[in-house]
Amino acid sequence: MVRRGHPVGGGALTEAQFSTLRYVHAGTSAPGHHMIDQWLSDAGIRRQVALRLGHFTVAPEVVRNTDLAVIFPEFLSRRFNKAGEFQLMSLPFDPPPIEVKVHTHPRFNNDLGVKWLRSLIVAVFAPEGTSAASGL
């Protein structure tokens, strides 16, 4: 995600452009974020981190006012871009899939509230085009 009008321009982001961008590293305790950092490192994909932030919620304000970029999950980027102030770009490579599992104690398998919550979580995280019910 970069600010609207960023010099990288429109269109698809290339690997060369990805490598030349300077990034905000938005801190979080979410395990998926660390998995992506590790995957980039393992794949030999380098990014120039220009600024490290203690929390990801500050990153959009920094990106909006600079030429820095940030890597966010698509759903989060779309949420921050409701006013159209950013240019959302796909990564120029396919990151590995991140598996999300829902575990509950067998004692709660028949609890209607737990069933509802579990189905809601599966529906939110199920890949597009798949049956959310298959994850229960």
Automatic annotation (TrEMBL):
Q: What is the lineage of its organism?
A: Bacteria, Pseudomonadati, Pseudomonadota, Alphaproteobacteria, Sphingomonadales
Any idea which UniProt keywords this protein has? Answer: DNA-binding, Transcription, Transcription regulation
Tell me its family.
Answer: Belongs to the LysR transcriptional regulatory family.
* Residue ranges annotated for the LysR substrate-binding domain, each copy included: 2-125
* Protein name, as recorded: LysR substrate-binding domain-containing protein
| Gene3D superfamilies in alphabetical order | Periplasmic binding protein-like II
Pfam families, per database record: LysR_substrate
Q: Which InterPro entries match?
A: LysR-type_TF (IPR050389), LysR_subst-bd (IPR005119)
